[in-house]
Amino acid sequence: RKTIVSILRDKYGIPVASVHQTIGAVLADPSFAQALGVEAGEPVLEVERTYFEAKGRPVNFSIAFYRTDRYRFEVTLKEWR
Known about the structure:
The protein is α+β, with helices and mostly antiparallel strands. The chain has 2 helices and 3 strands. The N and C termini lie far apart (41 Å).
């Protein structure tokens, strides 16, 4: 089991410099609801990630769906000026 970042780095020689992630609520589609163990139409989280190399080129894009009772999103905000 490897992460996308380690595969891109180790197998393809592409170091990932940054990742942009978007998280939103959507309704579970019948095509993946059973795999998540939820009913079609239940709320789930859709997570889109774009991985970028050092020059800003996107090198990987993924969309994943998560059950709302098994995924937590945590953010730490610090004072800035």
